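Q: What would this chain look like folded?
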Amino acid sequence: MKKFSFLILAMTFLLFSAEKVDQLAQFMEQEMTTMSEITPYDTLPISVEDKEKISKILLTMSENSIFKLLFEKKRLERLGQEVNHVHPIRFLGTVFTDPRLIHALHRIRRSGFKWDGFMDGFSERLMQEVKAKNVNQYIPGLAQTLRVRAEDIQAYINYRDFEGLVLFLLERHF
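A: My prediction, written as C-alpha cells:
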C-alpha cells in the first residue's frame, strides 16, 4: 500500500510539475514576443562611444566652475560635434536612464549660464528634427523607456517647449 501511495504521489507531482512547466513555457514565449517588439525609438542609433561622450560632456559641465569650463570649451565643443548625429529623442532616453547623468543635469540646471548653453544646443538640434517631421514616431518608445505618458511628451513637442520637456523629465526622474 505504501508503494502504491508513493507512486500516486509521484505521478501527481509529475503531472503538476508538467503543468507548471507548460505554464512557464507559455509565459516565457509571451515575454520573448513582447521583448522582440522593437519600436522605432529602439532603432535610433547610438553607440557605446556616443554614450561615453555624452557622459563626458554632461559630467564636465556639472562638475566644473564656469571659469574652468572656459578652458574646456574647445574640447566640449568637439565632443558635442561628435555626438551631434545622435537623435535628440535618443539623447533624452540616454540621459534619463542613467542616474549619474540625471544628477549631472540637475547640477547644470542650478547655473543659468550652464543651463542656457545646454538648452540652446539641445533645442536647436531638436528643432531640426521637428522641422524634418522626424520626432513623433519615436515618442511612444521614449515614453515606454522612461515610464511616462507619451501624450505628455507629445504636448511639449507640439508646443515647441523643449525646456519644459527636459524639466518635466527631470522632475519625474529625480
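DSSP finds nine helices and no strands in the chain.
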